[in-house]
Known about the structure:
Blueprint: H1 5-12, H2 22-43, H3 57-70, H4 78-85, H5 97-103, H6 107-115, H7 125-139, H8 142-157, H9 164-181, H10 190-203
Helix pairs in contact: 2-3, 2-4, 3-4, 3-8, 4-6, 8-9, 8-10, 9-10
Amino acid sequence: MTYTKEFQELLNNTKSVKGMTLTEYWEYFEKMEPIAKALVQEKIKGERKGLPGEHNYMHSIRVYDAVKRLHHWDDPDLELFLAALLHDIVEDGGVSFKELVALGFTGRTIELIRLCTHDMSIENKTERWTLMVAKLIEARDEEAWYIKLCDLADNLTQAHGLSEENRRFMVEVKVPLLLRLTDWIDGYGKKYHHHLKTTLEIKK
């Protein structure tokens, strides 16, 4: 994946878990997880569209829980978990990548967040989503797809809060497209693909 010079320089100055012992790795995660959760709860405001009383930030928590639950745990990827929790923090929380670096999140976590983030300068929501998917296709980053598969699966469970047009677009276009695009994912990662597929079957 080719990044802008500015973003690449940002990644070059981030924290790295390389060289950490397993104990140090877990200690880092235990330090950063509450920071990430607090950030999500503080910055992602409002309620889910069409679902009064459902806080927007709970979506991020559920995606985080799903990514962890489906992970194989033979080699826990704690940076992936943090990225899942923070996948909406830039576009919905207004937090910059520079701020995430300053808080101590690793380059890998920030890279995953960027891949999952819509370009909010694009006004048309369908174009915005399509270009985000194109970015994922170009990167071919399996872990970024894990996050987006869980993201869409959770959105699908709450699709009844959408307009009929948007609900149909999700069920008939978004979900089938992502399932087709991620059919190449194999091994442990297949569970994420299966999660979205079974969620669609339940919601139809």
